[in-house]
């Protein structure tokens, strides 16, 4: 009986894995394929599966390097037992990613692109406003918030927080051969996002 049960569970697991793999391949194919009646009809299902974790693009063949530097800063806040709000100092999330990439022969794709692409997707769906006007915008806002909260929790030395706020400072990249001097370049944008509520353990 036990052998039969184990075999049945194994067959079911293999079948589910095969079906999931097939569905994933079909949905990703519809995402990258030229526009057609099938991809148009099921666009909401395709986008719901692909974004933000399985996004595909052609930048491998036509890369679009950044022409500016971004500092993505985060600070957290929590309410203590007396009811007063304690705000932590700003913490540079992008600097952590840069330090993980520098002098690393095989840098992680996560270190290079996760935070950067989350911010780019946030701007694409929100524009200059921080109000989400679509389901995808809400999803990408939560995605960016969760990444920032996880990064902040990893560097909070065990401290908990209830809110997180992001500040994004965009700096131009100096032209090749120009002397940087002692003064840093003036930021082209300094954007302060609203406070976002997170769970007490920072996720």
What does this structure look like?
- The structure is a single chain.
- The mean pLDDT is 81.
- This protein has 2 domains: 1-51, no CATH class; 68-197, no CATH class.
- It is built from 6 helices and 6 strands, in the order H-H-H-E-E-E-H-H-H-E-E-E.
- The protein has 203 residues and is of the alpha+beta class.
- The protein is globular, with a radius of gyration of 22 Å.
- The longest helix has 31 residues, at 2-32.
- Strand 1 and strand 2 form a beta hairpin.
- Strands 1, 2, 3, 4, 5 and 6 form a 6-stranded antiparallel sheet that branches.
- The N and C termini lie far apart (43 Å).
- InterPro entries: DUF5819.
- The chain crosses the membrane at residues 12-33.
Helix share, percent: 40-55%
Beta fraction of the residues?
A: 15-25%
Please tell me how large the radius of gyration is: 22 Å
As residue ranges, the low-confidence spans are none
Q: Could you give the distance between the termini? A: 43 Å
Total domain units = 2
Q: What's the total count of β strands?
A: 6
Mean pLDDT: 81
**What is the H/E order?**
HHHEEEHHHEEE
Content-based structural category: alpha+beta
The tally of helices reads 6
Shape: globular
**Biggest sheet, open or closed, and with what strands and sense?**
6 strands, antiparallel
Task: Please give the structural blueprint.
Elements: H1 2-32, H2 37-41, H3 43-50, E1 68-79, E2 85-87, E3 91-92, H4 93-101, H5 109-126, H6 135-154, E4 163-172, E5 189-192, E6 196-197
Antiparallel strand pairs: 1-2, 1-3, 1-4, 4-5, 4-6
């Amino acid at each position: 009986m036990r052998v039969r049960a184990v075999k049945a569970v194994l067959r079911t697991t293999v079948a589910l894995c095969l079906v999931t793999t097939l569905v994933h391949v079909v949905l990703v194919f519809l995402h990258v394929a030229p526009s057609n009646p099938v991809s148009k009809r099921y666009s909401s299902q395709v986008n719901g599966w692909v974004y933000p974790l399985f996004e595909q693009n052609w930048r491998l063949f036509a890369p679009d390097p950044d022409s500016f530097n971004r500092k993505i800063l985060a600070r957290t806040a929590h309410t203590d037992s007396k009811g007063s709000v304690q705000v932590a100092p700003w913490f540079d999330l992008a600097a952590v990613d840069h330090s993980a990439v520098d002098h690393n022969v095989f840098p992680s794709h996560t270190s290079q692109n996760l935070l950067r692409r989350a911010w780019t997707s946030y701007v694409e769906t929100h524009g200059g406003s921080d109000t989400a006007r679509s389901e995808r915008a809400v999803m990408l806002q939560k995605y960016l918030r969760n990444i920032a909260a996880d990064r902040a929790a990893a560097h909070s030395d065990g401290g908990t927080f209830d809110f997180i706020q992001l500040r994004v400072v965009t700096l131009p990249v100096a032209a090749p051969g120009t002397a940087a001097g002692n003064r840093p370049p003036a930021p082209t944008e300094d954007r302060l996002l609203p406070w976002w509520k997170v769970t007490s353990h920072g996720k």
